[in-house]
């Protein structure tokens, strides 16, 4: 009798063929079972009672709620594997909804999603508050009575929306000598750089200054106050230490703040100043 070896056990030709057929039947049965389960899950996922049919937006003050609902519905119009609808209440893509809303509307800072039953998706949003302006076309060191073509940025330095034209200095103005391409949705500076810079600017008001505009050129900062004083410093230096030095300098009774035309703080532990009328 001819013997066939599988590498582990010796079989006769008849036993070997029988084992192959049994194995093939098991694979086919397992595959059919998996396919049946998959088809059943697809059918269940498409049941009408499981589909989100209504989107309700709330919390927006500036972004139209109907526009929020539109973006959410457009996001949910997609499908998993071209078969399973994203409108399924159990498996709808929460992350994609949040990301698409915040990409479409940079003014939105956070998105909360919740289901009211199976058919209604409640979308609650929070919007960024204007903190200052980014004005790419403002002339360097310019004092302004009106602003146009500017953008709002929040306290983190994120530029989130175009600002309307208005007269008077309503917000502090930031600018870079090298304009930001497509500023809406961009960061003016990284948060770890913008936060201490904003705190330094705010702190100047405690000395009696009224900061109006700030321009960054490479590492140097040119800040202009309402009375025309120009303050120069390094944007990426130790601004806490710099603030302490400036505070000590201004406490000198010989310094008349209203006569200061320029303060240069760019050299460590030194302050150079000029008075109005002096070159």
Task: Furnish the topology, listing elements before pairings.
Elements: E1 4-5, E2 10-11, H1 13-45, E3 54-58, H2 65-76, E4 79-80, E5 84-85, H3 94-104, E6 108-116, E7 120-127, E8 132-134, E9 146-147, E10 151-153, E11 159-162, E12 166-167, E13 173-176, H4 191-204, E14 211-217, E15 220-225, E16 230-234, H5 239-250, E17 260-264, E18 272-275
Keywords: Membrane, Transmembrane, Transmembrane helix
Protein name: POTRA domain-containing protein
Transmembrane segments: 27-47
Give a brief description.
The protein is of the alpha+beta class. The protein contains five helices and 18 strands. A hairpin with a 4-residue loop joins strand 15 and strand 16 (230-234).
What report would you give on this structure?
- With 279 residues, the chain is of the alpha+beta class.
- The protein folds into two domains: 50-127, Ubiquitin-like (UB roll); 132-275, 3-Layer(aba) Sandwich (Rossmann fold), CATH 3.40.50.
- Helices cover 29% and strands 27% of the residues.
- The protein has five helices and 18 strands.
- The chain has helices at 13-45, 65-76, 94-104, 191-204, 239-250, and strands at 4-5, 10-11, 54-58, 79-80, 84-85, 108-116, 120-127, 132-134, 146-147, 151-153, 159-162, 166-167, 173-176, 211-217, 220-225, 230-234, 260-264, 272-275.
- Strands 11-10-8-13-14-15-16-17-18 form a nine-stranded mixed beta sheet, covered by helices on one side.
- The mean pLDDT is 87.
């Amino acid at each position: 009798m001819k013997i066939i070896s599988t590498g582990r056990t010796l079989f006769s030709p008849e036993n070997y063929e029988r084992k192959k057929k049994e194995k093939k039947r098991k694979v086919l049965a397992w595959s059919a079972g998996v396919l049946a389960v998959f088809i059943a899950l697809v059918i269940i996922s498409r049941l009408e009672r499981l589909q989100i049919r209504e989107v309700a937006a709330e919390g927006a003050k500036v972004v139209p709620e109907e526009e929020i609902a539109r973006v959410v519905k457009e996001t949910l119009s997609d499908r998993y594997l071209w078969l399973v609808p994203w409108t399924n209440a159990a498996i709808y893509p929460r992350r994609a909804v949040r990301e698409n809303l915040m990409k479409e509307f940079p003014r939105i800072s956070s998105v909360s999603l919740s289901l009211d039953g199976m058919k209604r998706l409640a979308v609650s949003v929070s919007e960024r508050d204007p903190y200052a302006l980014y004005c790419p076309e403002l002339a360097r060191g310019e004092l302004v009575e009106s602003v146009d073509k500017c953008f709002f940025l929040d306290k983190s330095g994120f530029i989130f929306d175009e600002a309307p034209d208005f007269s008077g200095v309503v917000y502090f103005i930031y600018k870079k000598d090298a304009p930001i391409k497509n500023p809406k949705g961009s960061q003016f500076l990284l948060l770890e750089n913008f936060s201490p810079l904003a705190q330094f600017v705010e702190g100047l008001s405690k000395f009696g200054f009224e900061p109006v505009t700030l321009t960054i050129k490479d590492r140097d900062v040119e800040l202009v106050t309402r009375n025309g004083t120009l303050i120069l410093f390094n944007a990426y230096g130790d601004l806490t230490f710099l603030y302490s030095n400036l505070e000590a300098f201004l406490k000198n009774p010989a310094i008349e703040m209203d006569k200061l035309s320029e303060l240069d703080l760019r050299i460590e532990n030194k302050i150079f100043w000029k008075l109005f009328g002096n070159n």
